[in-house]
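Worked Example 4.2. Read the sequence first, then its C-alpha cells.
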Amino acid sequence: MNNLKVLLTALVVIGFVLQILFIKVEHEEKYVLADILKGSASLMFVIIGYLAYTRVNNPFNKLFFYGLIFGMIGDILLNLRFVFKKNGQKIFLVGILAFLIGHILYLLALLPQARAPWLYYFAAAGALAAAGLLIYIFKTMDVKLAFKIFGVFYLGAVFIMSAIAIGIAIFIPNTRSLVYAIGAVLFTASDVVLIFNTFSGVTKFSMRITNLLLYYIGQILIAVSLFY
C-alpha cells in the first residue's frame, strides 16, 4: 500500500510539472511541443485511473477510467487546433465532443449511487444553472451556431454531472464522494473560465492559467477519488 501511495504521489507530481511546462511552452507559441506536454500530463491521470481500475475491477471504476481517457483525447485535440489552424474550429468541436463523452461516462458511473428522489432536484438545479449560463453567453458573446449547439449539450452534461456529484457528497458522505465532488466542481469552473476567455473577445493569459490549473486539479482529484 505504501508503494502505491508513493507511485500515486509521483504520478501527481510529474503530471503537475508537465502541466506547468505545457502552460509555459504554449504561451511561447511552441504549439507542437505544447501539445506533447499536455498529452503527457493528461496521461498521468489516465494512468492513475488505470491503476484504480485494475486494483478494483468494477463498472464504476471502468466507466471513470474510460472517461479519463476521453479527457486526455479532448486535451490533445483542443491544443491541436493551434497546430492545424485551418481546421481549428473542427478540431476544437471534436475535442469538445470527446470531453462530452467523458462527462457522460462520469454521469453513468454516478447514477447507480444516486437513486433517491433528491437526485432529480440536483439534476434540475444543474440543468437550470447551465441554461442560465448559456442564455447569458448567447446574449453577450458572439458565438457561432456550431459552438452554440455543442455548448447546449456539453454544458448541460457538465453542470448536471457536477450537481449530482455535489448531491452524492451531501447525502452519501464519504471521502470518495467528497474528493470527486470537489474535482467535478473545479472541472466545471475551468470550463466556465475557458468559455469567457475564448468567446468574450478579450483573451487573458491569467485566465488561461486559471482555466488549465483548475481543469488539471479537477481531473487529478477525479482520478484519485477512485482509490477511496
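Now turn to a second chain, presented in exactly the same format:
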Amino acid sequence: MGTMQELRTMGAVERAARIDLAAAFRLAVRLDLHEGVCNHFSLMLPDGKRFLLNRYGLHWSEVTASNLLALDADGHLLEGEGEFEKTAFYIHSRIHLANPRAACVLHTHMPYATTLTLIENGRLEMVEQNALRFHEDIAYDDTYNGLVVDNAEGDRLARVLGRRRVLFLASHGVIVVGPTVAEAFDSLYYLERACRLQVLARSMGAKLRAVRAEVVRETCRMILADTPRYAGAHFGALRRILDREEPGYSR
C-alpha cells in the first residue's frame, strides 16, 4: 500500500492521462478523423495493468475524462459504466501487451489514409515532407480477415505492426501508436495530412516526384529528433482550443 502522497500522485497522473485521451477524441472530431460511434483510442495507465478505452455507443464529441472505461488485459471492466466494443478490446489489448512502445493506440478509418488501404499494394510513398517522418516506421497488413473478434486476430495484427509506429490495415483503416497521447496524436494528424496529399497528387495522373534516399533518411532523422518537443507543443496548442471552446471534455 502506498503512502497518501503516493496515492495522490497516482491519482493526479491518471487524471491527467484521462484528460489527454478525452482531448484526443474531441480533436479527432474537429479534424474529421472519426467515424460514427466506432473506431477507438486507448491509453495504458502508468501501472501497466489497466488501459483506458472509449465506451461503446458514445459519439466522440461526447467523450469526457470521466466516462472513459478502464480495463485489464483479460477484458475485465475495472472502472466506469457501460459496454466496450469487442473489436476495440481485441485490437488494443493485444497491441498494448505486445508492443512496449504502444502506450497509446489510436485506430481510425480516417478517409485519406483508409483510401490508400483500398488499392492493390497501396503504400505511403516517401515523396513529401509529411510522409518522410514515417520512413521505415510503417507496417502494412495486406490481408483483410473481417472484424477482429478474438485474441488470435488481435495477436496477428500486433505481430504485423511489430515495433513500428503505423499499421495500414487492408480494406479497413489504420492504427497509430506512440509513447504518449501527444506523440500518437501528432503522428495520426500528420499521417492523414500525408495521405491526403498523395491521394490528391495521384488523382492528377502524373508520376510522383522522387526524393533522394539520403534526403529521406536525414529529414526523417531531424523530424524524429524533435518529435517529443514538437508533439507536446502541437497537442498543447490544440488542447488550449478545447479549453476555450468546449471545456467539458476534461470533466
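Notes for the reader: The beta strands are 40-44, 51-53, 69-71, 77-79, 104-108, 138-141, 166-169, 173-178. The CA atoms of residues 31 and 156 lie 30 Å apart.
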